Amino acid sequence: MLEVRNLTKKYGNEAAVKEISFVADEGEFVTLLGPSGCGKTTVLKAVAGLEKPDNGKVLLRNEDVTGTKPEERNVGIVFQSSSLFPRMTVRENVEYALKPHVTDRGERRERAEDVLGLVKIAEKADTYPDSLSGGEARRAELARALSYKPDVMLLDEPLTGLDRALRTEIRDEIKRIQVETGVTMLFVTHDQEEAISVSDRIVVLNDGEKEQAGTPRRLYRRPETRFVAEFVGESTRFDGVVEEGGKGVRLTTGAKVGVNGRGEGDEGNKASVYVRPENVELEEGDHNNVFSGEVVEVTEMGSYAEARVETERVGEVITKVDGFSDVREGEDVVVGFDDSDAIVVADDA
Ligand code: ADP
Ligand code: MG
To answer: Which of 55, 229, 302, 346 is close enough to 223 for a disulfide, judged by CB 3.0 to 4.6 Å?
Structure first.
């Protein structure tokens, strides 16, 4: 188990990371998600012992390791760019990493063999790093970091520089390996889709601070801050003031969006309502929020399309429709969504 407690790290006078706390339970896949520069790598380095925090603690297996050297911590690291030793074969790279942990040479060889098999790179064992493909190099690095059975694996944007198909392949492999080995993983990415697809839990960082932590489902369905609502997933946003009882939000245009009590406790306060494109239908149905408008743009994505509808009363609404459907730009339509699908975030959140 990994615990980061009140971690603060400054560079000069600027705090790169402020008072961050989170836990990764044994066998859990936890992702640090946030835009470039928000402090993800700094947190990872503090966990690895490569940066000394100004305040706070790092605990591994309930032991305070804050003051220990990197080599005294049993962590596996995979960085953004390749760090394989070029003059060693893949096998030798792994055996070298095992040296401080396993004294017996034969056992090192056996462990290397096993882990290279696990990450499906055994056939490249006697190859030098510069003749590996991008995907193979990532696998080799995963093997090396896994070989000595670390307490936690740290992966800093490990899919950077891979093309789209390979990103998906290696992403799925990382997840498979984590499930198969039960290793605790702390994964870093700026890509919210990537985070949602692999994580048990996500910690969202913004400008050095923790915004919200939770399951992907929770973050997507119940974002608690404006930043999380806008960074995780797509949505249409309506700004207004919460009405008596928290049942609706009155927009500046005068129109009301029903929010099914989600505004409770925030009556009279400014708030934003967010609605996901897949929750908006191009028909009245039995939705309690219905607005008429005109389709102004259809963007095809293949399996689905995104339609932008300009409504008179609530402005632009984005909806998802079937790919290559009959929806046409210029068409008069209604958009409908349920008040139970409305996400409400108070202005000061
Ligand atoms: P991320 O990995 O999320 O992109 P980083 O942790 O690398 O973010 O950086 C967080 C902030 O700290 C950034 O503003 C960055 O410029 C700053 N920073 C990171 N490393 C250093 C350093 N060695 N010296 C000074 N500033 C740094
Ligand atoms: Mg980084």
So the answer is: 229
Determine the distance separating the centroid of ligand 1 and the alpha carbon of 136, expressed in angstroms: 29
Distance from the Cα of residue 71 to its chain's centroid: 28
Closest Cα to atom 21, ligand 1: which residue? 11
Residue 37 beta carbon below 6 angstroms from any ligand 1 atom? yes
- Distance CA(213)–CA(206), nearest Å, equals 12
pLDDT band at 80 (very low <50, low <70, confident <90, very high): confident
Dist. CA 37 → ligand 1 center (Å): 6
Q: What are 321-344's pLDDT values in tens digits?
A: 999 999 999 999 999 999 999 999
Q: Which atom of ligand 1 is closest in space to residue 51's alpha carbon?
A: 23
Distance 285 CA to ligand 2 centre (A): 46
Dihedral sign, Cα of residue 157, residue 161, residue 167, residue 171: negative
Question: What residues does CATH 2.40.50.140 cover in the chain?
Answer: 234-346
Contact call for residues 243 and 208 (beta carbons, < 8 A): no
Number of helices (H), then strands (E), belonging to the chain: the values are 8, 19
- Best residue among 18, 41, 43 to mutate for probing ligand 1, ranked by most atoms within 8 Å of CB: 41
Architecture of the CATH domain 2-221: 3-Layer(aba) Sandwich (3.40)
Contact 171, 197 (CB under 8 A): yes
Regarding pTM above 0.85, the answer is: yes
Cβ–ligand 1 distance for 36 under 6 Å, the answer yes
pLDDT value at position 79? 87
Average of per-residue pLDDT across 145-166: 95
CATH fold label, 234-346: OB fold (Dihydrolipoamide Acetyltransferase, E2P) (2.40.50)
